[in-house]
Amino acid sequence: MSEVHAEVDKLDGNKESIHPHAEPFDHPTGWRRYYYHPVTQVSMLGFVCFMGPGIFIALTGLGGGGQVNSSVQANASAILYATFAFFGLFSGSINNVLGPRWTLILGTLGYSLYIASFLVINIHPDAGAFVVAAGAILGVCAALLWTAQGSLMMAYPTEGQKGMFISIFWTIFNLGGIVGSAVAFGTSFESTVISNGTYVGFLILTLIGVFLPLLMANPDKVIRTDGTRVNQVRCPSWKTELFRLYVALKTDPWIILLFPMFFASNYCYTWEYNNYNGAIFTIRARGLNSLMSYTSQVFGSVFLGYLILDQKRVRRRVRALYGWILVFLMAFIAHGWAYFYQKTYTRAQATKDAHKIDIMDETYIAHVWLMIVHGFLDSMLQTYAYWLIGAMSNDPAKLAVFTGFCTLILIKHHTDKSLQSAGAAAAWSTDAAAILYMNIFLSTWGLMVASMIFAAPMVYLRVTDHTDVEDETR
């Protein structure tokens, strides 16, 4: 055991090790057998995110939060992801102290406030400061929610089921974006703006999501399909948890090579939703585009997670390589296609040009297919990032630290969240500063390709065919 782990043991006193050996347990009987089943719990987790982040991404997918002027939403998103990035550093520790259910509840509250702020600005157009403040608060809440989500989603399955469980979660979660986009499309079909009723409907759904975590089981009562119990995330001191952040990075430095991927995964949404969907389409076309994009994300997650990454007939190292190749090729296909569209308009032209592409236009079909392809790519990248982190550890406490720290660089809204958030904050800041669309697009393309190149050594050298107990404690 390393000196670092010895220090952690000292800080924890006589508490149980964070890397306990898995022991078989008898499965519950009766209705408890279904309630405590990992698939049931990950599905309930999906519905929590359906009601919160799912509705949030539906709103974001409309471009500018459904507003004609997207500057307020861009500023709110920039500060949202900045606070997400900062608090993502500590959200794993908070999750371990409060427990995942209460962390989820606190996290979902921010989404309700954020949706309410758009209702307010729809009624009072000068309330932009309230939207920005709500964005800052949501950043804190989102860091909590996604850290709890990541630690649970990757702790419930056995090693051979992680891709499937990621797919189950992403399918349900993205249904929030699909349903929200469908509602927005239907209510704005004969309108040029998003109605108050749409925002009220979104607000009600997010409030329902606040109470859903109360219906979930405590993780330590869930029995995996192989008979092992999900490791309980302990509640040690803050000093121990902050030190554990250092331990996680020192004992598993390979995760640093995934930072560019986490950063790039949410950086892309600014161009897709504001600089493409929000720039050149009518309101109802934006709603339909968002609907198609989130629908394709469901298929992208199932395709990569279930059909590729969880194929038991193929060794895990080989599956990791297949996943890398598919995501890398898809990144070039999607952005190569998008480049030809981006060349046809600028920020100045999109602002001044009164004509927007509508669903009845002849050119619409080709343009919406680009949204579909990018949605497919987005979910593949997110699924692959989660799967790689799940391949590094089976311990929820360690995963909570990884998910929290990485959230700091990624945020989709989702182990990679800290880094995701930093990427999204940077991207939304460029949009708020009115940087050229082409520059934002090229930076998006370049970051995604570079991130895959950085991840390649980790995929080849760190991913093993099985995560042993020794891997957890070395």
Note down, in words, how this protein is organized:
The chain is built from 19 helices and no strands. By secondary structure, the protein is mainly alpha-helical. The longest helix is centred in the C-terminal third of the chain and has 29 residues, at 364-392. The model is unreliable at 1-22, 234-238 and 407-416 (pLDDT under 50).
List keywords for this structure.
single chain; 474 residues; 19 helices; globular
Shape: globular
Biggest beta-sheet profile: none
Could you spell the SSE succession in H and E letters?
HHHHHHHHHHHHHHHHHHH
Q: Count every beta strand, where a strand is a DSSP E run of 2 or more residues.
A: 0
Low-confidence stretches are: 1-22, 234-238, 407-416
Q: What radius of gyration results from the CA coordinates?
A: 21 Å
Helix and strand composition category: mainly alpha
Helical proportion? over 70%
Mean pLDDT: 78
Task: Output the number of helix runs.
Answer: 19
Distance between the termini: 6 Å
Beta-strand content bin:
under 5%
Helix and strand arrangement:
Elements: H1 3-12, H2 31-35, H3 38-51, H4 53-61, H5 71-98, H6 100-123, H7 128-153, H8 162-187, H9 196-211, H10 238-251, H11 259-280, H12 283-308, H13 316-342, H14 347-352, H15 364-392, H16 396-410, H17 417-432, H18 437-461, H19 469-473
Helix pairs in contact: 1-10, 3-8, 3-9, 4-6, 4-8, 5-6, 5-7, 5-10, 5-16, 5-17, 6-7, 6-9, 7-16, 8-12, 8-15, 11-15, 11-16, 11-17, 11-18, 12-15, 13-15, 13-18, 16-17
Could you write a compact summary of the structure shown?
This protein is mainly α and 474 residues long. The chain contains 19 helices and no strands. The longest helix is centred in the C-terminal third of the chain and has 29 residues, at 364-392.
